[in-house]
Amino acid sequence: MKPFRKYSAENQPKAWFFLLPALGLITLFNVYPLLKSVWMSFQKGSLLNPKFAGISNYVSVINDPTFHTAMKNTAIYAFFVVPICLVISLLIAWLIFEKIKHKNFFETIFFIPYVTSTIAIGIVFKYLLNGSYGIVNHILGWVGVAPINWLDNVSMSVPTLIIFGIWSGLAFNIIILLAGFRNISEEYYKVADMFGASSWEKFYRITIPQLLPTVTFLLTVNFIGAFKVYTQVYALFGGSAGIANSAQTAVFYIYDKFHIAGRPGMAMAATVILFGLILLFTVIQNKIVKKVEG
After folding, report:
1. What pLDDT sits at residue 238?
2. Which of 17, 142, 227, 233 is the most interior residue, by most CB within 10 Å?
3. What gap in Å lies between CA 268 and CA 58, rounded to an integer?
4. What are phi and psi of 51, to 5 degrees?
5. Contact at 8 Å (CB) between 213 and 126?
6. CA nearest 236: which of 168, 284, 171, 184?
7. 58 CB contacts (<8 Å, ≥6 apart)?
8. To 5 degrees, how large is the angle CA 262–CA 273–CA 254?
C-alpha cells in the first residue's frame, strides 16, 4: 500500500516552475554581481587585464585611514538616523491615525518626499542650510543662535548629513507604520475600554506590541539602507564627500576607488567587507529582536 503523503504546496513542481523566472532574475542581478565582486576583490590591475593579487586588496583597504573614516561616519550615520527617524515617524504616524481628520490628505503630504528625487531634496537642503543666506540660520538667529556653517565645516558635515538622512527617511516609515496601525484589530481596544484602560495604557500595552513586527521590519530595512548611504552625500555636498572628505561613507569610498582612483580590486574588497558587516549586523539584530518579542 502506498504510504500517505501530506500535501504541501511548497513542494509541488508547479510552484518551482512559477518561481523560476523570479529566481533567474535574482540570480542574474543579485547573486552573480555578488560572486563577481568577490572574484574581483582578489584581482589587481584594470578591468580588461586583471591579475590574481591574493588578499592584498583586503590588506590595503583595512590599512587605509580613509576607509576607517568612511566606516566610522557610516556607523555614526546609521546609529543616529535609524532610531531618531523611527521614533519621529512613529509619533507622526500615530498623530495622523488617531488625532487628525482628513487622514488621506496628510498621508499624501507625508508620502510626497518618498516619490521625490533625493537629489532634488538635497539641492533644496543646500539652500536651506547655506551658511550665508540659509533660512535655517535665519530662524536660529531669532532665538540668539549664531550662524552655523552647516556645509563647509569639517565638524558639521556628518551632523548635517544625519539631519538630511532623518528627513529623507520619514516618508517611507510613516506609510509603513500607518499600514501597521490599520492592521491592529479594533477588538483589542474595545476590550481595553471595557476595563477602563487609559489612552497611554492602550498605546503601551496594545499598540506597541501589535506594531513590533512592523517596527522590526523597518529597523532591518532602515539599518541596511543607512549602511549603504550614498545618494544623500552626493546630493548634499554637490558630488563630493564634503570638505576634506569629512562626510566620506563606505559606499562613497567604494565609488571613489572604482571610478575615480581606478582601483576596482580595492573597491570590490571594500564591497565584500561592507556586505559581511551588514549581514552580520542584520543577523545579530534579528536575534535580539526575536528575544525581545519572545
Report:
1. 80
2. 233
3. 9
4. -135, 145
5. no
6. 168
7. 41, 269, 272, 273
8. 30
Residue 14 has pLDDT above 70, yes or no: yes
C-alpha to C-alpha distance for 240 and 251, rounded to whole angstroms: 12
List of residues 6+ apart from 172 with CB closer than 8 A: 114
Share of residues in the chain with pLDDT > 90 (%)? 28
Strand (E) positions, the chain? 43-44, 51-52
238/127 Cα distance (integer angstroms): 12
Helix, strand, coil % (nearest 5) of the chain? 75, 0, 25
C-alpha cell read off for 273: 567587507
The cell numbers describing 173, all together, are 516609515
DSSP-derived secondary structure letter, 43: E
What's the rounded mean pLDDT across residues 92-110?
79
CB 149 within 8 A of CB 131: yes
Number of Cα atoms under 13 Å in the Cβ half of residue 219: 19
> What span, in angstroms and rounded, lies between the C-alpha atoms of 227 and 239?
19
For residues 241 and 249, is the Cβ–Cβ distance under 8 A?
yes
> 82 pLDDT exceeds 70?
yes
Alpha-carbon distance of 35 to 41, in angstroms, equals: 10
